Amino acid sequence: MRNILKGLFVLTVVALLVCKVSNKKETSSQYLLENIEALAGGEEPVIQRCYSSGSLVCPINNSKVEYIVEHYGLQ
User: Fold this and answer.
1) Which InterPro entries does this UniProt record tie to the protein (predicted)?
2) How many CB atoms lie within 10 A of CB 57?
3) Rounded to an integer, what distance in angstroms lies between the CA atom of residue 33 and that of residue 41?
4) Predicted pLDDT at 46
5) Model confidence, pTM
6) pLDDT truncated to tens, each residue of the chain (75 aa)?
7) Model pLDDT, residue 70
8) What is the 3-state secondary structure (H, E, C) of the chain?
9) Cα–Cα distance between 20 and 27 in angstroms, integer?
10) Which residues are CB-neighbours of 35 under 8 A, at least 6 positions away?
11) Which residues of 26-43 are buried (b: 16+ CB within 10 A; e: fewer)?
């Protein structure tokens, strides 16, 4: 009976260690892939808005404006 309990205990410890190592490996891979995608995507201006009248050329409609607002994202 004691041998069976020892065997179950050792089996449980080994199973927990395997689960812990495999979960840690997947998390690292997930972060790595997200970082690679973010770096490959670059930072592109997503929304541009032009305000007032001035000397800058608005990239949306080529009119003269005072302010150009660009929001950056990873998409």
Assistant:
1) NVEALA
2) 13
3) 12
4) 59
5) 0.34
6) 888 888 888 999 998 888 877 665 555 677 777 777 777 766 665 557 888 888 888 888 888 988 888 776 555
7) 77
8) CHHHHHHHHHHHHHHHHHHHHHHHHHHHHHHHHHHHHHHHHCCEEEEEEEEEEEEEECCCCCCEEEEEEEEEECC
9) 11
10) none
11) eeeeeeeeeeeeeeeeee
Burial class (CB in 10 A: 0-12, 13-18, 19+), 65: buried
Asked if 58 and 68 touch (Cβ cutoff 8 Å), the reply is yes
With tokens 């997200």, the residue in question is 34
pLDDT number for residue 12: 92
